[in-house]
User: Fold this.
Amino acid sequence: MGVHHIALATADLDRTDSFYTEAMGFELVKCVTALTPEGGWAKHVFYRNPDITEGAPGMIAFWDLHGDYPVPTNGMSRSVGLPEWVNHLAFHATSAEDLQRRRSRWTDLGLEVFEINHGFCRSVYTHDPNGTLVEWCCDLRELDDDDRIEALKAISDPAPALEEPPSDVQHFPADPTRQPEWALHPD
Assistant:
């Protein structure tokens, strides 16, 4: 899937920049500053994963809005009344070792992390400063025709058979004594 970029609003550009450069290891590559159609102005800030060297690397971008705009709160799921796990950002980890390196980066920063084996992929999760659930995901196997056939059946079935929830779930609690200032929740 060739995604050029995904753009989201941020409530705090400084904290968002710190998270995506320090915790995610992304690099800042571009910032466009311009007037907005509604009479305000914005910074549109782009990041990319420097570890992706082949194909279209894709980017994530954030809008730092100035003007008569609501301040985004509670992440992109809770802000619209959904559970936090529904709308989230999942980034590709290239191997099991890469996934563990990403998890260690987060736990070394004192962030709360969950690791879940979903059977076909293994994921680690934390939250960015905007409250959005962020995931690194490593494929454990290739999806094949059997997976596609199962998916076709499931999407057309009004009452599909439900899978058991993952049993291989690990929780790494937050450690505020190790968290950088940008990771601490203001309140």
